[in-house]
Design brief:
The chain is α/β, with parallel strands linked by helices. It folds into 3 domains: about 240 residues, FAD/NAD(P)-binding domain (3-Layer(bba) Sandwich), CATH 3.50.50.60; about 110 residues, FAD/NAD(P)-binding domain (3-Layer(bba) Sandwich); about 60 residues, no CATH class. Helix content is about 35%, strand content about 20%. It has 12 helices and 17 strands. The chain has a 7-stranded mixed β-sheet. The chain has a 5-stranded parallel β-sheet with strand order 5-2-1-9-17, covered by helices on one side. Strands 6-7-8 form a 3-stranded antiparallel β-sheet. The longest helix has 24 residues. It is globular and about 70 Å long. The chain binds flavin-adenine dinucleotide. Flavin-adenine dinucleotide (FAD) binds next to helix 1 and helix 4. This is Pyridine nucleotide-disulfide oxidoreductase. InterPro entries: FAD/NAD-bd_sf (IPR036188), HpyO/CreE_NAD-binding (IPR038732), L-asp_N-monooxygenase_NS-form (IPR052189).
Length: about 450
Amino acid sequence: MPATDTTLPIAVIGAGFSGTMAAIQLLSALPQSRPVLLCERAEAFGRGLAYATPAPAHLLNLRAANMSAFPDRPHHFEAWLAGQTEEGVQRTPAGTFAPRGLYGRYLAELLQRAITAGGVPRLHLVNDAVTDLEPAGAGYILHTEGGPVHRVAGAVLAAGNLAGPGAPHSHYRVDPWQLEQFGRLHPHLPVLIVGTGLTMVDTVASLRAHGFSGRIVAVSRRGLLPRVHAPVEARPAPNLTTQDLASLSVLLGRIRREVAAADAAGSDWRGVLDGLRPITDLIWRSLPPAERARFLRHLRPFWDVHRHRTAPPAARTIADEIARGSLEVLAGRIRTIRDAEAQALVTLRPRGAGEDRHLAVQCILDATGIGLVSETPDPLLRRLMARGLVRPGPFGLGLDAGPDYRALGPRGGRLWTLGPLLRGVLWECIAVPDIRNQAVEVAALVAADLDRAEAA
Ligand SMILES: Cc1cc2nc3c(=O)[nH]c(=O)nc-3n(C[C@H](O)[C@H](O)[C@H](O)COP(=O)(O)OP(=O)(O)OC[C@H]3O[C@@H](n4cnc5c(N)ncnc54)[C@H](O)[C@@H]3O)c2cc1C
């Protein structure tokens, strides 16, 4: 890479957890002369999709003990939380679970401190959508929706979770994070949620907070609900051999034996899964591609519900709703949706059933989660792909990147990425304990790359 002007900023695109922490870590890793430009299209910085919610019932899915923003200060969030008087923090035998909005405040405070720290401000906020990175010399001209452009030495793409393709197609489809846009919900017609994972759990809480007292039907291919956290310690990661990693069935057999051993020792599967966390990336990268594809086809729903667990109060709410009959969780698939007056007519085929089931619902909430790069309507990603600066990651999940987090594409450049966009490359990269490490590593790699360029 050619040399670069030592005063040009590094841009960070997206100010959710990934971008906020990448920017904070870059301020430490880069020389004082190099500013950081943090760009966010939403109103608030330091929130992202996960921590923008004001609803107290939307709890963190991880214990407060695992949510520090800094890998070298594991109790940082717990200590911050202890100083807060806000209601809604749930202390359970399985750990403390804070509202996600409160976590957003923690991040916003960290960002504010980073902006005001030191003498000359080095962290600049751009409240606009980035629409393009136009290669210019060794860096880019960063274009924004509002019009202003910025010369930057390089960029870190922290655009987060990709939105789905907008399915299922219906006039009555509603974004679960923007329920208020639907207006009044009537109690006499049910509401359909597509997906039965953590977003469904949040959506049920949002619907009730919104005043909806009617019936909710949630459907997914297997109808699996996320498991609940319990007071279990992580077990040491098993010492996996090359043979264990040669095939999914051998690996599964090995993990089942670990679970049996945990049960015998008075622990349970949670300790085994939590113990796998530090080596999940390694497992993912070691499995042959055909075995990774098999995992995505057959095991992913089971992995997701065991790995991404709910806080006990949220799980209790869902169990109560099911027991009362106000929430029905179905395994099956949607065959057709026909929009009619004031309702959508949905035909479902329940799993294992020989006949369809028909439902008239007033709205359909898509809680299926993350979309594929090939289907993304995101203008920035589409332009970067067209320019050859990025390309889809393995299995179309997120973006392709090297072990140094540098985005890979036919053209390449001084562009790095982190967080959920690395899903296909790393698999275990979407939660705070993983992303906080990535932020430190990316910052160090960006600084080293610029150092090398300056020395050249
Ligand atoms: C509902 C939900 C709950 C979660 N709960 C937890 C939890 O409790 N604990 C946990 O560890 N993890 C949780 N996660 C996982 C979550 O993915 C990570 O914790 C983390 O928030 C990911 O942050 P991010 O910055 O990568 O992505 P995002 O939060 O998606 O943020 C990306 C940001 O980039 C901005 N952006 C995108 N494109 C552009 C552009 N072109 N220009 C400008 N800005 C742009 C977006 O507006 C957004 O603010 C949750 C995820 C979700 C979706």
